[in-house]
Amino acid sequence: MDQISLAVNGRTDIGQVREENEDSIRWYASSDKPFAYIVVADGMGGYSGGATASKIAAETIQSHMDDLLKHTFISCTPEQQQLILRATLTEAINSANNALLNTKNLNPQFSKMGTTIVVAVMWYDFLIVAHIGDSRAYLWNNYGLQRLTRDHSVVQEMVDSGQMTQQQAKQSNVRNHITRALGVSSSVEAEINSWKLTENALLLVCSDGLTEYLDDHAIERVLATHRPALESVYRFIDDANKLGGRDNITAGILEYSSQPMPQMLAKEQNVTQRPRSPDVTIRKSQR
């Protein structure tokens, strides 16, 4: 079995224009197990409403993630663990939604608040991502950049239906209008996808304050060249601020690396290695 190393870093910034930071970020990497996660929420809803919404959502999901590594989970098979991860993410997001609705009921001044959410969790080489809204997750490795989420937004629906090009979407007056959010209705449906990583990789989780200014090519350039990789979060924030910083900006980086165990290397030294076919970098897990 390969030796897997996970490391995370994150940063959120108010930007150049806003008076309040309505983004929230939480991240964690276990010191003794190959487990890590990043949570990014981008709140909305008037004075202090957006900040409250993103904070409640991020903290609620963080609490569920922190409770995951119990004895029952560790003792399960890999297949069972993957199912538990998916169920835990679903439960965490539903709990966050209920917490927001309860807060709104108790505090009328928060009646219009809501938030996007994107959560990325790594367990060994298994990556699972859940999102609602237009906060995003990207994966980069030696094969390039791949966007792992699809925005729940008006312009994305128009692009999908052929009514608008990607370039037009970037300039649209409704580019920040989302079609799904946390804390808006009693039922919420997160989009959840999972992959098995097969190469060393960097995972970027971010709010739209970053992608407003940096397109996929700019994001890939930073992830491919900025080292140490975890410090690229500061570069992303700085670049977005230099380009205008009209929104709050949040970025989290998870660095995944896998190396053969030392004893395995010793055994393989006398074996002629066959050339490895360039399979796809990541592949969807069976559901």
UniProtKB/TrEMBL annotation:
One of the Pfam families matching this protein, by short name: PP2C_2
PPM-type phosphatase domain residues: 3-256
InterPro entries: PP2C, PPM-type-like_dom_sf, PPM-type_phosphatase-like_dom
Renumbered residue ranges of the record's region Disordered: 266-287
Alphabetized PANTHER family for the sequence: PROTEIN PHOSPHATASE 2C, PROTEIN PHOSPHATASE PHPP
NCBIfam families: Stp1_PP2C_phos
Protein name: Stp1/IreP family PP2C-type Ser/Thr phosphatase
Protein's organism: Microbulbifer epialgicus
Phylogenetic placement of the source organism: Bacteria, Pseudomonadati, Pseudomonadota, Gammaproteobacteria, Cellvibrionales
